[in-house]
Automatic annotation (TrEMBL):
It comes from Ceratotherium simum simum. It comes from the Eukaryota. The keyword GTP-binding does not apply. This is Unique cartilage matrix-associated protein. It holds the Pfam family UCMA. Keywords: Coiled coil, Extracellular matrix, Secreted, Signal, Sulfation.
Length: 84
């Protein structure tokens, strides 16, 4: 009878240890997931800022080109080019 009780107690202890280990693994997985999600969000924000800056520089360059080449007529120069 004592062996049976000892066996049951050891089985119960093993189950408790396994559940504790599983909880630790789940917690580590959750922390890892949160870390990678944060890194991905930071990278996406960085890429979005870079894209916005590039679009702004491009828009400014186009606007400068248009102002430099504007022929003073309306509508703009593209429609008022005279063919020789």
């Amino acid at each position: 009878m004592a062996y049976r009780q000892l066996f049951l107690v050891s089985c119960l202890l093993a189950v408790v240890l396994l559940s504790t280990e599983n909880r630790q693994k789940l917690q580590a997985d959750e922390l890892r997931r949160e870390y990678h999600e944060e890194q991905r969000n930071e990278f996406e924000n960085f890429v979005e800022e870079q894209t916005d800056e590039q679009e702004e520089r491009s828009r400014e360059a186009i606007e400068q080109w248009r102002q430099w080449h504007y022929d003073g007529l309306y509508p703009s120069y593209l429609y008022n080019r005279h063919q020789i």
